[in-house]
Design goal:
By secondary structure, this protein is an all-alpha fold. The chain has 12 helices and 2 strands; from the N terminus they run ααααααββαααααα. A hairpin with a 4-residue loop joins β1 and β2 (about 195). Keywords: Membrane, Transmembrane, Transmembrane helix.
């Protein structure tokens, strides 16, 4: 399967939903095509449901990571730390936005009377700032994971990430703080919840650029990773090697391609609707449907993270070697990295860190 044509078709498929939006709905107006009761249930039930599922998924990853740490009594390997870190950002975002929507949903009578239903000031401004901050965390962390994997696999450059992987977290935290702090007046009450104000075009432009750059980064990194795996396979095919070695390389390529497509597809499903939503707001176009789903689709990242984790580690934790073969091979690979031994374990690094 060619990666770029596949991703191009996915993006076109998502963008095609623009043609399904009626022109009379995509107008600069605050009105909704639904009555108040229906609008209330659509606006609040969908996001609250998605955030609740996302929170349960992050708690599941927290629990599995704790069991792994408790069993090994040492640092968790990198391929299991990355899903854990993504779960942290998803947990922070979904927990805050769940409070955000739940508070508004508790004021149903005010909503039906067209009264303000959001958190009072300054809590509303703090809530909007925090939601933007944690979404920035998530976007930048996905980019950082792809860059780290690219450095290890393609450039064969191994470096210590420091205690608690601060060399990854520190730049992410700094950059994530710069974006919302540069637009402090952009947060406050909207019609349904607390977030970026409709007239705050600066924050929408920043997120548009950030999402496009991150998507370009993960495409660049993961395409290079797949190219490297294919080159290694071709080099091994030109020399005498056993059938087992050849089958092993084919399995690595298939497994890596599956993981790469999952990561990129989840990111596209998460943030392409956000790009569309930001374009609409920059063009002063209000659309009810896009506005409702944009908060929910970000949760697809957390849900996809859980699905990926279960596929790699199994649904239930087992201390036996049945579901931990990948973990054992990666543990050996990381031990070899620590003593700068030969490159014979690069395949296991590729398999588990992508």
């Amino acid at each position: 399967m060619d990666l770029i044509p596949f991703l191009f078709r996915i993006i076109i498929f998502i963008l095609s939903f623009l043609y399904m939006i009626p022109l009379n709905d995509a107008a600069p107006t605050q009105s909704s095509p639904y009555d108040s009761i229906t609008e209330f249930h659509i606006v609040f039930v969908i996001p609250i449901t998605f955030h609740s599922i996302n929170l349960l998924g992050t708690l599941y990853i927290f629990y599995r990571t704790y069991l792994r740490w408790k069993r090994d009594h040492r640092s968790i390997v990198l391929s299991l730390r990355f899903p854990f870190y993504l779960a942290i950002t998803d947990f922070l975002y979904s927990s805050l936005d769940l409070i955000n929507y739940s508070y508004s949903a508790s004021n149903k009578s005010k909503f039906l009377n067209n009264e303000v239903i959001t958190l009072p000031s300054p809590l509303c401004e703090i809530m909007g700032f925090s939601v933007v901050l944690f979404v920035s965390f998530n976007i930048l962390l996905v980019g950082a994971i792809s860059i780290t994997t690219w450095l290890r696999v393609v450039q064969e450059y191994y470096f210590e990430l420091g205690k608690y992987d601060y060399k990854i977290w520190f730049p992410i935290v700094i950059l994530s703080l710069i974006f919302p702090l540069s637009t402090l007046n952009a947060y406050g009450p909207t019609k349904y919840n607390c977030g970026a104000k409709p007239e705050a075009s600066a924050i929408m432009k920043i997120f548009f650029i950030l999402i496009v750059l991150t998507l370009a980064t993960i495409l660049f990194c993961y395409i290079h990773i797949l190219t490297t795996i294919r080159r290694v396979k071709e080099e091994n095919s030109s020399v005498s090697s056993s059938n087992n070695s050849w089958m092993y390389l084919n399995n690595i390529e298939k497994k890596t391609l599956k993981k790469v497509l999952t990561y990129i597809l989840v990111f596209i499903l998460q943030y392409v609707p956000v790009l569309i939503y930001n374009m609409f707001r920059l063009l002063k176009i209000q659309n009810f449907i896009i506005g409702v789903i944009v908060s929910s689709v970000i949760c697809l990242g957390g849900i996809g993270n859980v699905i990926q984790y279960i596929c790699n580690e199994g649904f239930r934790y087992q201390s036996s070697s049945v579901t931990c073969s990948d973990y054992k091979s990666e543990t050996k690979a990381e031990a070899d990295e620590a003593v700068d031994e030969q490159k014979s374990n690069d395949d296991s690094i590729i398999t588990n860190n992508v």
